[in-house]
Design a protein that fits this description.
It is a single chain. By secondary structure, the chain is of the alpha/beta class. It has two domains: 195 residues, Rossmann fold, CATH 3.40.50.300; 46 residues, no CATH class. The protein is 43% helix and 16% strand. The protein contains eleven helices and nine strands. Bound molecules: guanosine-5'-diphosphate and magnesium ion. Guanosine-5'-diphosphate (GDP) binds next to helix 3.
Amino acid sequence: MRDVARLVTLVERDDPAAAAERAAPLAAIEANPLAPVVGFTGAPGVGKSTLLGALASSLAATSDRRIAIVAVDPSSAVTGGALLGDRTRIRVPEGRVFIRSQASQAESGGLAPTTYPVVRTLRRLFDLVLVETLGVGQSEDDIQHVADATYLLLQPLAGDGVQHLKAGLMEAPDVIVVTKCDVAGLAQSALADLRGAIGLARPGETIPLHAVSARTGAGIAELADAVAAAPAGPERPGDDWFVTRAVRTVHGRLGTERLAERGLPATGSLDERLAEALARSISSA
Ligand SMILES: Nc1nc2c(ncn2[C@@H]2O[C@H](COP(=O)(O)OP(=O)(O)O)[C@@H](O)[C@H]2O)c(=O)[nH]1
Ligand SMILES: [Mg+2]
């Protein structure tokens, strides 16, 4: 685990010395089989970190699968050289699960600048990679470039279904998880409401819906089975990830008004060459 942590730190670093030092160990694992990557997204406080701890503990107890977790947290702070944050919330058996916390940045789509290369590394070293990403509404495309399956966590109250529908949140996820089902007030009507909203947002599809409680353990084993069964997809091209981020950075920096002044669309595709040039400069930086 110490070697893995060291390699991940080298992948996160942005200097020539780190690039030189990581080249050989990365080359040595390049041909390793790719583990599935499952992304967990949802609003702050919905219970992502707690659930990942429960899932990883459950999987560690029932199999010898090696699990890595990458947790992106807006509140992660560097203290005395150590990145704290979700690491402290994710409770897993000592020494069995690798956890890396990353701080998200203002312009990021819920992930950190180095989430892609870190996940790329970890899927060659572990049997399963779980990614906790911040649920930040529209800018969640990034997780699509990183994960083979995306789980959206929700904490619905009665009448909430329509709001999720409005937020366009339900367009991307493969699975929806209702958290904190031990809390009184999560009426069956809320679940039925949510089921209705999912049906409207994704007609003709069957989106699995899990109701769980990390506190009581209800539904955790079933959800862990589903997560463990996720098939590993092929590697996503890094360019897609960098272009998505570059386009959003341009939008974020210029703002809708200035984009409009320049005759640039506020949504949709910007000048592709501009995005690509930016992406190149980000990836070679
Ligand atoms: N009652 C209850 N509370 C939970 C459960 N899971 C998480 N919480 C609480 O919800 C809060 C936010 O949880 P956290 O995992 O940090 O959420 P995140 O911001 O989405 O990662 C914490 O106070 C947790 O103790 C659960 O299953 N039941
Ligand atoms: Mg968290």
